[in-house]
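Anyone up for a design puzzle?
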């Protein structure tokens, strides 16, 4: 058979409309019909039964899934990539943050090699959350910016780095941002209490995005009573060149902040992420991590340190969010006028952020990363590059 033909489906189109139609694809989308077209000969035919068909979801900030921490080992990374399609995810940036020192360089090389052939979601490169950060957060590194060390780090990753998060207030960060842009790496801003001037300088140098926005973005102190301080958050919201992303679990940030960002940036300027780690996608319970403590997963909460004797007991330890649940949350939080925005925040917008014009959309010639959804926003079937990687249609 030369391809797959899906009919009696509802298609999520690039302009946000949802229309009944049909779709023909192999490794790429070969034809999009805005009506129930007849099936061509010699193809596998799927009757979707009016189910919704969307592009695969894209997560640009995720540390793990299930029991798998991406930076622990190549085996964990491969297993995590294989698991993600059950949540409708077809592309991620595995996010590394504790293993960015020279003693970890051999591990980084092995992790990079694991990205080449995957059986599930694909990864165009890593997201390095650090090491040039001003605020450590949950174990992230805070090293002095150095272009020479940057080159060593990128080489250790086999130059398979798609994005890197930095803090604008660090001395010497502007040459690092410029160097990243010259090397084709998207620069994110995070873990920062940068001033207006420092944030603006970072944007001017090439930083174009803020990740887990509002989280680890502490406001500057009031200069005097009655005067509201302004810092990185306001600059990112006000600069039309910049986009932002949010952990959409309702715990890390209030939905009102997401609605405010959409009002400022428009539907194309906000991205949904999970910042997920060990415990994501698992039922309530306690789970071991690579960091010497267990995390507790509970319904309606983020992952938290579960060991009573641990100094950070009860504190947040990443999220247990999956991206399909993030989309479901957004559909509840956003007004009816943004009905399609929730999908765009997890498909088209992250694809544009990463410079992947043939991903994140249902259009002729696009890569056939697709998800056919059940009514409860669990995938019925997921395809990556036209290959079925979850479910049975």
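Challenge accepted. My sequence:
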């Amino acid at each position: 058979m030369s391809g797959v033909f899906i009919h009696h489906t509802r298609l999520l189109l690039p302009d946000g409309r949802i229309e009944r139609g049909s779709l023909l694809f192999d490794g790429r989308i070969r034809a999009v019909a805005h009506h129930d077209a007849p099936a061509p000969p010699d193809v596998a035919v799927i009757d979707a039964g009016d189910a919704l068909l969307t592009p695969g979801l894209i997560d640009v900030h995720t540390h793990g899934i299930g029991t798998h921490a991406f930076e622990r080992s190549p085996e964990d990374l491969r297993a995590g990539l294989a698991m993600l399609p059950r949540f409708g995810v077809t592309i991620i940036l595995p996010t590394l943050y504790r293993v960015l020192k020279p003693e970890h360089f051999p591990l980084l090389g092995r992790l990079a090699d694991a990205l080449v052939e995957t059986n599930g979601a694909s990864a165009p490169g890593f997201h390095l959350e650090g090491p040039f950060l001003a605020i450590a957060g949950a174990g992230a590194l805070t090293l002095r910016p150095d272009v020479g060390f940057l080159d060593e780090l990128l080489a250790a990753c086999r130059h398979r780095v798609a994005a890197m998060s930095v803090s604008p207030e660090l001395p010497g960060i502007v040459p690092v941002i410029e160097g990243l842009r010259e090397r084709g790496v998207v620069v994110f801003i995070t873990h920062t209490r940068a001033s207006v001037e420092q944030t603006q300088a970072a944007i001017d140098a090439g930083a174009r995005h803020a990740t887990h926005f509002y989280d680890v973005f502490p406001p500057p102190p009031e200069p005097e009573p009655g005067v509201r301080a302004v810092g990185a958050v306001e600059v990112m919201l006000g600069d039309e060149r910049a986009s932002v992303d949010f952990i959409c679990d309702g715990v890390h940030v209030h939905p009102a902040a997401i609605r405010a960002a959409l009002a400022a940036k428009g539907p194309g300027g906000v991205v949904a992420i999970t910042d997920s780690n060990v415990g994501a996608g698992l039922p309530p319970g306690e789970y071991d991590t690579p960091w010497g403590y267990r995390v507790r997963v509970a319904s309606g909460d983020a992952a938290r340190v579960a060991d009573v004797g641990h100094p950070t007991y009860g504190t947040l330890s990443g999220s247990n969010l999956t991206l399909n649940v993030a989309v479901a949350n957004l559909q509840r939080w956003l007004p009816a006028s943004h009905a399609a925005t929730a999908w765009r925040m997890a498909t088209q917008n992250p694809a544009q952020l990463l410079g992947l014009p043939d991903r994140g959309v249902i259009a002729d010639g696009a890569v056939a990363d697709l998800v056919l959804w059940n009514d409860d926003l669990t995938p019925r079937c997921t395809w990556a590059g036209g290959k079925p990687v979850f479910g049975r249609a």
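A detail worth pointing out: The longest strand covers residues 4-12.
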